[in-house]
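**Backbone geometry record:**
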Amino acid sequence: MTSTAKGAVIIGASAGALEALSLILPALPAAFPLPIFVVVHVPPHKPSVLADIFNAKCRLRAIEVEDKEPIESGVIYFAPPNYHMLFEDQSSLALSNEDEVLFSRPSIDVAFESAAEVWGTELIGIILTGANQDGARGLQAIAKAGGTVIVQNPEDAYAKAMPETAIAFSPQAQVLSIADISAYLMSVSG
């Protein structure tokens, strides 16, 4: 499904991700106009079931990214275990098994920085709950590129470290509850 809407949404999360994403992604309408990319720290040597879980819960199709995956609006793309998710352009994804970043592959920073280069001002970057610092530099890259930056309020995050570090790196970020993040994305869908 191609769309005239421009832009993309990218979400990073770690500890507590399943619960947080379960309050955001299923609420989105079937006609959501943007692609959504999700990077969650998952164990590297076993299959991830995130795409299956959210494909069953959401009105949008959810898939795990494969190398050279075409990008379509209204699809939720999950980074696979043990690969960094990169953007070749606004129409194609790539995977990399380069070194871990902050002990993580997939790395939220790597994906966010790559997305910022491709979408710039048309990118919405969201950092959710997590117990490390991954995502802070990536969100900062989105902010520097003129994109919209949003961080889950650390007070209602399962793990505060990731949102707190993201806020420290990007003090201009909108700090929102999960309900307000969901409402913001609903407003994007028109």
In short: The two ends are 17 Å apart (CA to CA). The chain has a mean pLDDT of 92. Residues 108-119 form the longest helix (12 residues). The chain is about 30% helix and 25% strand.
